Amino acid sequence: MILKNPAKNSPFANFFVKLTACFGELAEFERKIRQISDIARLPLAQFEIDHLAVRMNNIETAHQWRTLLEEGAALLKESEVNGRPISLFRLYQPLDFLGQRVSVIELPFPKGKVYAEQGWEHIEAVVPLLPAETIEQWITRVCTQFQLAENPALILKISQPYVSGERLANPTIAIRLRDATYSNPTCLKLHPYSIDDVVRSESRD
Predict the structure, then answer these.
(1) Which residues on adjacent β-strands are paired with residue 107?
(2) Strand pairing of 187-191 and 100-108?
(3) Looking at residue 168, what is its pLDDT?
(4) What CA–CA distance (Å, rounded) separates 178 from 46?
(5) CB-CB neighbours of 74 under 10 Å
(6) To pair with 140 at 20 to 30 A between CA atoms, which of 24, 57, 81, 150?
(7) In this structure, are residues 151 and 39 in contact, taking their beta carbons and an 8 Å threshold?
(8) What would the pLDDT profile of 59-69 be if each residue is shown by its tens digit?
(9) For this UniProt entry, which residues form the secretion signal (predicted)?
(10) Mean pLDDT over residues 71-81, rounded?
């Protein structure tokens, strides 16, 4: 699903065909993320979807996908996260995902985990900090507001990845479905800051 359909013979049309061939159908990924948000009773329409992310099982595939993204996107940021490189690309033409314009794709290099499905793997949405709210208070508020810990259908993981050079603490609340019958290995992640917030913080004196 693309926000503005490019002409059939345009470079963008060819790029998005390649994107789907590598990462999988965006509409199916959208369905799986909607399923998680519905079961979590988390209204994604109220929050900015910051970026979409892919996963792969080997370095060769990571390099191939990075080369692909360079055809239709500009490198926004590249960081060491928990000891492995993660690249963020801003698409020249945004995707339409759950009714929002999403321009950023995250491509992390693999670090040994084998995924049953390669391609689209998670999204990250922004639930902003309240004024004077600490990171610990943010985590408690979000989990309490949506009763995430009390929902037996969910698996939660709360973490704060170490990102070399970043000034903003940007913890993650990762939400997956517990029941294997859903056949849904994707993940919905929540953060207090967007990628643009993080990048702007790094440019300050």
Answers:
(1) 87
(2) unpaired
(3) 73
(4) 24
(5) 12
(6) 81
(7) yes
(8) 999 999 999 99
(9) none
(10) 89
Taking the C-alpha atoms of residue 108 and residue 118, their distance in angstroms, rounded to an integer, is 12
Lowest-confidence segment of 4-18, 47-61, 104-118, 187-201 by average pLDDT: 4-18
Residue 36 makes CB contacts below 8 A (sequence gap 6+) with: 175, 176, 177, 184, 186, 187, 188
Q: Is the pLDDT of residue 57 over 50?
A: yes
Task: Give the torsion sign (CA, 86, 155, 196, 43).
Answer: positive
d(CA 66, CA 108): 10
Which residues are within 8 A (CB) of 185 and not within 5 positions of it... i.e. 6 or more apart? 115, 116, 117, 121, 176
Average pLDDT (193-197) is 88
The answer to whether residues 191 and 171 touch, using CB atoms and an 8 Å cutoff, is yes
Rg (CA), the chain: 17
Class of the CATH-defined domain 16-202: alpha beta
Residue 48: closest CA among 102, 96, 2 = 102
Q: Which two tokens stand for residue 128?
A: 């902003």
**pLDDT digits 0-9 by tens, 155-178:** 999 988 666 566 677 889 999 999
